[in-house]
Amino acid sequence: MQIGAIWSSKSYEAGPEAYHSWSDAWKYRNVKLLGIDGECKVLDLPINIRYDFSGNKRTKWFASTGFTSLLMLSEAYNYNYVYPNTVPSDYPRYVEKDRSGNHFFSTVNISFGFERKFLPQLSYQVEPYLKVPVSEIGIGKVNLYSKGIMFSLKYHFKK
Questions:
Q1: Is 79 in contact with 36 (CB distance < 8 Å)?
Q2: Whose CA, among 26, 92, 104, 114, lies 20 to 30 Å from 35?
Q3: pTM to 2 decimal places
Q4: Cβ proximity of 70 and 137 under 8 Å
Q5: Nearest-angstrom CA–CA distance, 22 and 91
Q6: Is residue 142 exposed (0-12), middle (13-18) or buried (19+ Cβ within 10 Å)?
Q7: Distance (Å, whole) CA 88 – CA 77
Q8: Cα 95 to chain center, whole Å?
């Protein structure tokens, strides 16, 4: 079992239809919203089960799966209109929100990778991952997918 805490900044662009709490409201407005640029600061709290499927004393190959809870630290959105100079002043252009909510077990984690010891009690890991949403997050109720490669150091306590 693996647990952790990862602070991350997620930047993305999406059309108004991706923001489920806002998409219906834009259908009836007299301006054309092209898209919204978002940036969220989150605390990612993963709980995973890891299976080592091959290797030796120095090198291991593994697969991992589990869930992540996301704590939204801040959200910021920039609205992009077709004709920005003709947009009424009461329409949003930029929205910021702090501590918009917690989303427990909102993402399924899938990863694989390898670990290599380079000192008796220290190893490094390289782990490509995919995080698939199981619930909508943030004030826009977005399905936030994440992918990447995690590089980490691991300390092995003596038995």
A1: yes
A2: 104
A3: 0.76
A4: yes
A5: 13
A6: buried
A7: 18
A8: 20
| Burial of residue 140, with CB atoms counted within 10 A of its CB: 0-12 exposed, 13-18 middle, 19 or more buried | buried
Alpha-carbon radius of gyration of the chain: 20
Query: Dihedral of the CA atoms 125, 127, 132, 134 (nearest 10)?
Result: -20
Structure tokens at 159: 């038995």
Any idea what DSSP says for residue 89?
Answer: T
Predicted confidence at residue 25, as pLDDT, reads: 67
pLDDT in tens, 118-140: 999 999 999 999 999 999 888 77
Which residue type occupies 80?
Answer: N
Instruction: Write the single-letter amino acid at 9.
Output: S
Segment 52-109, tens digit of pLDDT: 988 888 999 999 999 999 999 999 988 888 877 777 777 777 888 888 789 999 999 9
Tokens for 119, please give them.
């000192």
